[in-house]
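Thread: Leucine-rich repeat protein SHOC-2, structure

OP (GT): Posting the sequence first so everyone is looking at the same thing. Length is 149 residues per the record. Can we get the structure tokens written out before standup tomorrow? I want them in the notebook alongside the other entries.
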Amino acid sequence: MAQAVANVARRINATMEEQRDSLGAEISINNLSIDVWFIHRLHYEHISMVSRLAVEVDLQGNVLTTLPEAVANMQHLISIDLSRNKLRVFPERLTDVSSLQHISVEGNQITELPMEKLCLMPALKSVDVRSNPLTPEAASFPHHFTLLT
């Protein structure tokens, strides 16, 4: 397994050095196949490519103003980082992903949170909304998860 991970790391480094946009790789270990995607620059078609198996998605710093619809179909998604984008509205599609445990929208331009919908997410453990111009009542709703403000 270490050999396979090292090979993927080398390919990621080469991708960065060659300034290519993305890299796809498959790691096979004991008949278990895992697709790994490294995305240097976000393109919406990449979201569709990784949606089958994604567990963690890091889309920070991509100047997103909306969330691609494909994210709502990532039913195994556990963590998503949307920090430092241009979101003005909390992406409510995330509330449809029942497996989601951690959401970060730090450093965007969000003023309100859909607290009622967030509270209905069974696996949710934390939501990071630091460095957003939230209204004072945005986080006042009782909740079962950690809310970083």
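GT: Both are above now. Quick notes for whoever picks this up: Helices lie at 2-17, 44-50, 115-119. Residues 38-46 have pLDDT under 50 and may be disordered.
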